[in-house]
Specification:
TIM Barrel; seven-stranded mixed β-sheet; single chain; 8 helices; alpha/beta
Length: about 210
């Protein structure tokens, strides 16, 4: 899964698939807009495949051509050697977010930090199972200079806890889908309410949250 920071349309390559869905970027070219690109396996390469080294090289080409700021689960969850190599080659350019490799588990995240695997983690509250362990995972990642993105899950409800968790932790990143469907809108509305409550104390992280 790729996260692209989209600026004004003319900055993108002529044939870029990212040019088409940019009405907001055209109207407000100085405001960052994040586009998430994800394809199901059925739309991928079928029988064709790439090893970790070749796939990392392909990512390098794409990062040079497109405004990619983060890759989530860029390699297989059990390919720790490949993740180390990806971190060494791409870790100073973009966020390398681990989801399946870490499963919001503080012990596994700690191992990833020690072994220089990834530089960011996806946090899912109901994946690890307790708020205490979720906070441990967040604090561990942020303490060691990693990025952290709090995420919803499939079968989501209108509960807005993750919106509060993002603000309280200061991680600056939330993944909760497009601005559609009530369970998603509820979380964005909660963020707006939090901003109102904080007033002048509210801070917008901006694109710096993707910097490594």
């Amino acid at each position: 899964m790729f996260y692209c920071l989209l600026g004004s349309e003319p900055t993108l390559p002529h044939r870029s698939p990212l040019r088409k869905p940019l009405p907001l970027a055209r109207k407000q070219p100085r405001r960052p807009l994040v586009q998430q690109l994800h394809r199901p396996r059925s739309q991928l390469l079928g029988r064709h495949g790439l090893g970790a080294e070749d796939l990392i090289a392909l990512y390098e080409e794409w990062i040079a051509e497109f405004p990619i700021v983060a890759i989530e689960d860029g390699l297989a969850e059990d390919d720790w050697g490949g993740w180390k190599q990806m971190r060494a080659r791409l870790g100073d350019k973009i966020l390398l977010i681990g989801d399946d490799i870490f499963v919001t588990n503080p012990k596994i995240i700690a191992r990833g930090i020690v072994e220089n695997v990834a530089n960011a983690v996806l946090i899912k509250l109901n994946q690890i199972g307790t708020l205490t362990e979720t906070q441990q995972a967040l604090r561990l990642a942020l303490h060691h200079g990693w990025g952290a993105m709090v995420s919803h899950r499939s079968g989501e409800t209108e509960d807005t806890t993750i919106a509060d968790l993002v603000v309280a932790s200061g991680c600056g990143l939330i993944k909760t889908g497009s601005a559609s469907r009530s369970e998603r809108i509820a979380k964005y509305n909660r963020l707006l309410h939090i901003e109102e409550e904080l007033g002048s104390a509210a801070q917008f992280a901006g694109r710096g949250v993707f910097s490594r």
